[in-house]
Amino acid sequence: MSVHDTASDREVRCTVSGPENAATVVYLPGLHGDCTLFGGLRARLAVRFRIVEVAYPRDQDDGLDGLATAVIRTLQEAGIRRGTLLAESFGSQVAWAILRAAPTGFQAERLCLAGGFVSHPWPWAVRLTGGFPFGTASPLLAAMVLLFPRIAPWIGESWVGRREAIRRFVAERRRNGDRLAMSRRLRMILDEDLRPTAANTSIPVHQLSGFWDLVVPWWSVDRWLRSHCPGRIGPCRLVNTDHAVLFNRPAVAAAWLAEILDAGGLRENTGFTPNRLASGSSPRSPGNEPEHVKGHR
């Protein structure tokens, strides 16, 4: 199936690629709400796994539960009834809401957080980024969008289509209503308390994050999960990247996810070492090999 990686105005969209009978991974994007930055990871994962990419609507305004319900309905219509949730940043909020809505026709086998969280440790930063009042265009969000193409070329792995992905990402953020939708999603983060859901989640919960993440402080997130989430698995930290870990380090992220999926139902940490890249990925230049810090129960 061809991949449409941008959002629509009024409905959740999902596209499917990869072998039909393979293990299924459902990608829930971050605050931007689409899959414009997912191409590097898609190219590596879709060879072996069934990849389902979700894009949120811009005009959705019935809260996080409404968004989660719409995602589940779209997955059902596409024949996707079970799989691994790969939740990036804000996508973690959608993932917890999907787990809270169960049983609803979609069975989450495990949850993989990429820069994700339960309750954001810095609510003041969420308010600042969202602008005031929420639902209006945020000058800070606009500045972050303009800054992204200047910083992104200097960070992360080189992969085919990376420059075009950056261009499309910025172009989409300039669409009418796109930053308003991002502001509404920030409001959802503050409106919901997903801690009871996480505290009752027994499926494996894996974590991947960049060590230099200044958007979501991974140390605070993992401390809470370690103390309260029964399904929490030891995290993997990539030293040479920031919050956009899936975009900047797709080869390592693909290897991490593949090892989790290959482990099947195992609950323990897989012992993943980021120096083992996904099969077929391009070699890194010397001195640019990521390290990791693993946490254990």
Question: Can you tell me about this structure?
Answer:
This protein is an alpha/beta fold and 297 residues long. The chain has a domain at 13-119 and 193-262: Alpha/Beta hydrolase fold, catalytic domain (Rossmann fold, 3-Layer(aba) Sandwich), CATH 3.40.50.1820. The chain has helices at residues 39-45, 63-77, 91-101, 123-130, 139-151, 162-173, 178-191, 195-199, 218-228, 245-248, 250-262, and strands spanning 13-17, 24-28, 50-55, 82-88, 107-114, 205-210, 236-238. The chain has a 7-stranded mixed β-sheet, sandwiched between helices. Strand 4 (82-88), helix 3 (91-101) and strand 5 form a beta-alpha-beta unit. The radius of gyration is 18 Å and the shape is globular. The protein starts with 12 loop residues before the first strand and ends in a 35-residue tail after the last helix.
Which characteristics define this entry?
297 residues, alpha/beta, Rossmann fold, seven-stranded mixed beta sheet, 38% helix, disordered C terminus
